[in-house]
């Protein structure tokens, strides 16, 4: 519980420090909050990682309810913009991808480690774990937006409905790819230190 509380506190600090955890881009927000969730997944396992992902989702829910952007209805059922309003799909988008951010990196890293007999921390595993955590968030969020809110998302962003998936792909390219690269770099740099056996023993993980 102490370990979860520590990582949870980092997530909350990032989330509610202006322009730090959620970086406003007008039509949406870029984020780095997935990074402590990914690190937590690697250090304390997928179950506790899922709890950290739930905290991540909760901060997104609160931010989009209390400090909305034009498309916040896709993350909270309690925000409407004219004819656009959220619903049950908003909760799915807000929480399910973020919970998986705390699960997927653990198994990606474990899978990479299983391919090698080297007991040292796997740099490739850390890089792929970081990228997978960021991409599972971006790809699931954006594709679930298409599933649940295609028409409303298109109108909110001023694009034609038949061009909305192309717009979503552009968001994935401009937000998702840089977020994945940043997550890979941070996960590698932090993980190389924290994943060492002597450090993990000191941390009790």
Could you characterize what this model shows?
The protein is mainly alpha-helical and 205 residues long. The chain has one domain: Arp2/3 complex 21 kDa subunit ARPC3, CATH 1.10.1760.20. The protein has 8 helices and 4 strands; from the N terminus they run αββααββααααα. The protein has helices spanning 2-16, 34-44, 46-66, 88-101, 104-114, 123-156, 164-194, 197-203; strands at 22-24, 29-31, 80-81, 84-85. Strands 1-2 form a two-stranded antiparallel sheet. It has a two-stranded antiparallel ribbon with strand order 3-4. Strand 3 (80-81) and strand 4 form a beta hairpin. The longest helix has 34 residues, at 123-156. The protein is globular and about 55 Å long. The relative contact order is 0.14. The mean pLDDT is 89.
Distance between the termini: 12 Å
Q: If classified by CATH, what would the architecture be?
A: Orthogonal Bundle
Number of E-type strands:
4
Task: Give, in order, the helices and strands.
Answer: HEEHHEEHHHHH
Oligomeric state of the chains present here: single chain
Mean pLDDT, to the nearest integer, reads 89
Count of DSSP helices? 8
Strand arrangement in the largest pleated sheet = 1-2
How many structural domains can be distinguished in the coordinates?
1
Strand count, sense and barrel status of the largest sheet are: 2 strands, antiparallel
Percent of residues in helices comes to over 70%
């Amino acid at each position: 519980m102490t370990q979860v509380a520590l990582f949870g506190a980092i997530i909350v600090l990032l989330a509610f420090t202006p322009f730090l955890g959620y970086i406003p881009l007008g039509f949406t927000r870029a984020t780095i909050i997935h990074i402590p969730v990914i690190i937590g997944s690697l250090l304390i396992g997928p179950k506790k990682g899922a709890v950290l992902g739930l905290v991540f989702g909760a901060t997104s829910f609160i931010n989009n309810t209390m400090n909305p952007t034009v498309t916040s209805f896709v993350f909270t059922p309690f925000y409407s913009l004219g004819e656009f309003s959220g619903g049950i799909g908003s909760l799915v988008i807000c929480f399910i991808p973020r919970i998986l951010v705390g699960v997927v990196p653990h198994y990606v890293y474990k899978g990479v480690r299983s391919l090698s007999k080297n007991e040292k921390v796997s740099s490739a595993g850390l890089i792929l774990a970081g990228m997978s955590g960021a991409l599972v968030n971006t790809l699931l969020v954006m594709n679930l937006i298409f599933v649940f809110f295609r028409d409303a998302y298109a109108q909110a962003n001023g694009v034609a409905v038949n061009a909305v998936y192309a717009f979503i792909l552009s968001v994935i390219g401009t937000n998702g790819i840089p977020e994945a690269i940043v997550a890979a770099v941070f996960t590698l740099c932090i993980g190389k230190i924290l994943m060492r056996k002597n450090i993990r023993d000191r941390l009790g993980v």
